[in-house]
Design goal:
Number of strands: 5
Oligomer: single chain
CATH superfamily: Response regulator
Number of helices: 4
CATH class: Alpha Beta
Radius of gyration: 13 Å
Helix content: 25-40%
Largest sheet: 5 strands, parallel
Strand content: 15-25%
Distance between the termini: 6 Å
Order of helices and strands: EHEHEHEEH
CATH architecture: 3-Layer(aba) Sandwich
Shape: globular
Structural class: alpha/beta
């Protein structure tokens, strides 16, 4: 089963995103902190990490750089209201999804980046 590690600061969005991604057949672990993501990479072994940029303890960008610096095979999706750069590689991410009430785009990006199960 494809594993998703999701970092989102808003508790209600964490629940909603987890439920939506689980409905798509993914195993999803959620947190509100970037440090948790860094600490869970080895034990949880996610295939995709979905990061909000404005996390409570550290920037999602910093968290994404940690993920890519230590686990190059893990795909990183930024999910935020912040304006993305023209060149997403400067953020160390594989894709960016603007936060919206419509979660179809996020689900499509995760599906595209997740390894075939």
């Amino acid at each position: 089963m494809v594993r998703i590690l999701l970092a989102e600061s808003e508790p209600h969005l964490r629940r909603l995103l987890r439920e939506e991604l689980e409905d798509e057949g993914y195993e999803v672990l959620v947190t509100g902190r970037g440090a948790d993501v860094a600490g869970l990479l080895d034990s949880y072994q996610p295939d995709v990490v979905v990061l909000e940029i404005l996390l409570s303890d550290m920037s999602g960008l910093e968290t994404g750089r940690i993920v890519k610096g230590t686990h190059r095979g893990i795909r990183v999706v930024y999910h935020s209201n912040c304006r993305p750069p023209r060149d997403l590689s400067s953020w160390g991410g594989d894709d960016y999804v603007f936060k919206s009430a419509d979660l179809d785009r996020l689900k499509k990006v995760v599906h595209r980046l997740a390894p075939a199960a």
